Amino acid sequence: xxxxxxxxxxxxxxxxxxEHITRAMQFVATARxxxxxxxxxxxxxxxxxxxxxxxxLAATAEVSHPYLEEREIHRVALVVMAGDRGLCGAFNQQxxxxxxxxxxxxxxPAVVLTIGARAERWAxxxxxxxxxxxxxxxxxxxxxxxxxxxxxxxxxxxxxxxxQVQVVFEEFESALRHRPVMRQLLPLTxxxxxxxxxxxxxxxxxxxxxxxxxxxxxxxxxxLLSHMAAATHASEHAARMTAMTAATxxxxxxxxxxxxxxxxxxxxxxTSEIMDVVGGANAVGAG
Length: 287
Fold this sequence. Notes:
Layout: H1 2-59, E1 76-81, H2 91-105, E2 110-115, H3 117-125, E3 132-134, H4 146-158, E4 164-174, E5 177-186, H5 209-286
Helix pairs in contact: 1-5, 4-5
């Protein structure tokens, strides 16, 4: 019985330590998510206004740009964004399932660019050698990986090494609503940066629309990549917050159950000792 009590105490101490860790991770993920939600919101607003400008420019007569023109597809670039670490439920696995499905659907050869060590491991497990393997999302500053990944992606597209760019990332709506998706980055499609809007006033551009479009489109590509990265990063912390909340609740249930079992075992041992004392006293009295 004493050995059973010691075992229950050890298990109870272990579960309490785990509960402290999961609760701390839950609080950290919640704090980071709150900060990233503001970044995602500001990126959405920036992308929306930039998209409106591009729609105005693209609607101007005799304006064209390689980023807006469909090509015959011979090779596709697939950008895969994944979480930095584990302990976030099935977050990374769901992203990789979308990436696997994308590779299976592609009719043309693909080159892969990854963000994060987990995405790089995913690519190498499938026999793919990433042409660019960027560090985790948390290593980048406020502007995200767009300033570093954007030039590499645009370089592949500008030189004709790829004819289309697809991105696998996590679309963030709220802490409880986020889902893995694949979106086309290049060529840019109408409404890719902002939803379609009603025709409004006539605009005159200075410098001329073709020159302005040439300067703005690369920024639009980088802005889209940064927004996708920020949404993925926020979704990762949302998934980790949910997973750690569930783990903390489970640990508390185990603590309650183990405490009840410990008290019951201790009471049984005390009752047994009392019975032994009473039995011994009765035996002495009878003698």
